[in-house]
Known about the structure:
By secondary structure, this protein is an alpha+beta fold.
Amino acid sequence: MKKVFILAALSLILIPAISSFVYKGEELPLNAGLPMPDYKMKDVSGKMMSLSDAKTKKGLLVIFSCNTCPYVKLSESRIREYSNYCLENKIGCILVNSNEAQRSEEDSFEEMQKYYEAQQLKCAYVVDEKSQLADAFGATRTPQCFLFDAKGLVYKGAIDDNVKDPGAVKAYYLKDALTALHSGQKPGLQQTKSIGCTIKRLE
């Protein structure tokens, strides 16, 4: 009986520690090249693909996302709009789910497939096992954006200045960065602060 009590107490201590683990690595600096470009991840289509596979001659938009974060849900229409913009303008785009601590729950591969279909997404949506790619990027939030041109990272941060209300947006950070990239220019603003849920890593 005493052993059961000790195990129960330990579980209460350990579970929050796992679910609330915060990565404290350095975020990818501007002008850096693609981290782990050939690291293969499972797409919702069932195919294995890497950032190199998704990238085009113009560049690549990487968005760390998931199925459940309230901030992602508030940004769904914008994520769909800008990912479609990328594909229509021959810019690579990939959504990355690094929530490894929720892989047996709402962020399982099967739930990702359902979410992808429900959102009518067209770009890749992949599983980042053990949050390896998120660690390489120093990504900590969902949604969090990293935009690369042919040479390196040209924008990182938030989608815009009002994650809670798309109708009240005054500064379209990602849209402006994509427009600049499409025109062969550097974005005027290259770095903003991402606001969202923490990526659920395993400790």
